[in-house]
Amino acid sequence: MDTKLYETLIAGNAAALREFATRDLAAFLQVTTEGDNVLHVTAKYNLMVKTAAIIENPSLKSLVNQKNSKGDTPLHVAARMGSFETAEIFVNCANSGEIEAGERVTKMVNQVNDTALHDAARNGHFRIVELLIKVDCELPTLLNDAGESPLFIAVDKRHLHIALLILKDAPDFSFAGRNDMNALHAAVIRSQDEVLRLSSYMVKLKSPMTYLTNMSFKHSFKFSSFGPSAIIEAAFQNNIYRDFAKLLLEKCERALYEADEFGWTPLYYSIHFGAFGIFKVFLDKVDSSIAHKRDKRGMTITHIAAREGEDAILELLAYKFPEIWDLQDYEGQTPFHLAVERGKLACVKFILGIGLSHDGLINQQDNKGNTALHLAAIHGNNQKIFDLLIKDGRVDKTARNNEGLTVIDIILLKEYGYYEKTWVTMSLASNGGLESLEHSINKNGRKTRSSFTMPGGYKSDGGPEAGMAILSRKTAFRVFVVANALAFCFSTTSMFLHYCRSFVEKLDVHAFYTYLTTMLTSYGITAMVIAFVSGTYAALADTPGLAKAVLSIGCSFFGLQLVVYLK
What we know:
Elements: H1 3-11, H2 14-23, H3 38-44, H4 48-55, H5 74-81, H6 84-95, H7 116-122, H8 126-135, H9 150-156, H10 160-169, H11 183-190, H12 194-205, H13 208-214, H14 217-224, H15 226-251, H16 266-272, H17 276-283, H18 288-291, H19 301-308, H20 311-320, H21 335-341, H22 345-353, H23 359-362, H24 372-379, H25 383-390, H26 407-413, H27 418-430, H28 437-443, H29 475-501, H30 507-539, H31 544-566
């Protein structure tokens, strides 16, 4: 685009622009490096007088429909930037019939299939949305490449005033959104206050003590300013979105039954985020078909409530849909498993206390054979849950999982402190817990592993040679055994002489002992290297290349030893 023309567009007046057009009209057909024509530029800065002056020229009216390199028309730019007056000029020009017949400018899409209404809704420009719906009532039904409708975008961006406008003024509209979500999904998710949601997530990244010890007074003051205002705003926001969800359901109750790409309906998200007000609105509308619905992992709404620790929601679900109380997901886990695994004490107490929880549910094993008590021992998220389970007479403390481990076995294998491990295992044992037979045998020495690892291992088959070394007939192995014995003798004798030297007072005898210990230590090191090289060589006999490499590396020690002795 001509530099002088661009300067006139930005800094000049309409008269100067008309004068420039009389001199060089062809310059108005030029574009920038991004493909923007003169109307794209005036739309960016909402230069309505200059826009009108350009469109006055019949030769330039077609620029209203011209797209830039991203497929945006000047109307797209005006809608995105909030240039209402300029957008109104474009719409009026397109509807005047003075432009050659073709696609209506309001329905023209860019490279991602966004119309001007998509851009206006995304950026929160209420007046432009109102204008576009008035001139083209079909726009709210159109979707972009991501599958998003203008209504979904408005809700997703938290522009509820625009969403309400679409619901009120548009005769028809789409609820559709990206990833198979709809506007009701977006409403539930956006009902959460972002400050509170992110703060709860950030606290999980570090322990509270880390924040207290490393936070300065200035930072403490800054963070404290979020607290009261965020809580008040969150309460106000929840009421607004609850009423908005009611309105969406009145317009399209079917949206409550639609699942996204994860298999989650809006009801799932209301439970996941603990949006109790919205959940109660949904609960009045749902039937047993949605209660039995499973997500991609086989979870029902009761699984989600238990996993997230929403005991109040779990209670409502238990009494409204008792038939789904003991359903298992695709990993074989019940809501009770998930509540215990996540350490949700209130949900665990409720499940244990409700009459629907029979012994079979409490002791149900998942696909790995783990009961809820196994998971409490494995994850250790909440000691109170563990204590609650071992004191409950209905809980089976002797159940074995697919690895053959009881709860006591798991506790003994975990890295607890001595006193903590002793206390937990004794508590389990006193409440009926048992160690597996296999682990009892191991501790009594019947199946103990050798404390000395022999190269190649031992013969385990029956016969007179059972327990003998497999490589005992190989020369390299015999060298290993002899060298290993010599290394032990030399090093032990050296240590004994070093000990005896402490009782010697004569300097000449003291020097003699020092000489002997130094010599024996040197011999012990040499024997140890020989034992290592020969043992490794014997074990790697089937891979001669690797065995020779180890032999070469080991022998390099003797070269180093020779250099030291010669110096």
